[in-house]
Amino acid sequence: MLRKKFVTNIDKKREKTIFPPVMNAQPSLSDSHSRMVSYLRFSVTDRCNLHCLYCRGLNEEHVLPHDHLLTYEEILRLADIAWDLGIRKVRLTGGEPFARRDCTHLLLSLRERFPDLNLRVTSNGTLIRPHLKSLKEARINAVNLSIDSFDRATFARITGRDLLCEVLDVLEELLSLGIRVKINAVAMKGITDVQLPSFLKAIERWPVDVRFIEFMPMGSGTLWQETIFLSADELVQKLQSLSSLEAVRERHKDQGPAQMYTVDGCKGRIGIISALSHHFCDSCNRLRITSDGNLRTCLFADAMTPLRDLLRDPDVRNEDIAAVIRNALATKPVGAELLKAKRAIAVAQGHMDSIGG
Question: Residue 144 sits in a domain of what CATH number?
């Protein structure tokens, strides 16, 4: 069945009353720099079964108590508010989203609630297999898999677990179901640059976009440092020495921040996301909701707007929360300016597993 009961025990009749199917609404959300906002990322949990060095680093793991997380009903309510504000793209991420019980029920409810929503998931791929049919049923627009190396030993060293084979099996199963797949890889000198041939073999074998993301200095205790930072320009130069790259000049509306390249003889493509060396702040169209219900308007800013208590206050209306979101956007910064001021230290508090990447 498409709709199943949440662990939060949402009453179905009440849910249908609160969340009738929404078909049309006009985009109307912009920030103080006249950037239209149409994309919202939900970190549904800060828990993850991996321990990637660029995300959690070497710090001791701390996770939020369950009652600090937004409930699925609260996420649906926020999605409803966001739709009315013009949000048309939603991504569920984490942590690892499938580390939270019944995550697929949330996906199915979002699809039922918003038939035309661009609905996506970012995952490490290790916990997806039991949910593949539900992903197909939810008509997921794309799944982003985090694969930082196609070498089994290197993958285990980066993530803390020897699960590359399982992730590659899931990749093939997703493709066999007709689900679009993108591969995200954090670019690190001494790892990514020396293993580029294996990434090129991946796009030769599979019709996927492999996107290299510049390592960002998020939080404390990670491995980020200048000596292992691999810039977009360095990546392109090395790739061009290995293959024939051609930049995709015409940007698709759904392309996001990546500069895409086609490669001769390959089914897939290469993408470069230059978050540090060539920022794309002027076209930023996204907001983030942390797993404990804080609105983050910029990945590199520490300032957050708490929404959880508002969602749990019976006297606060959707219109009131929408007004809070609009007010937060009035001070949405330009991340590149923050980078210039703080480049020598960790740019932002909090790790990727709680912010949502």
Answer: 3.20.20.70
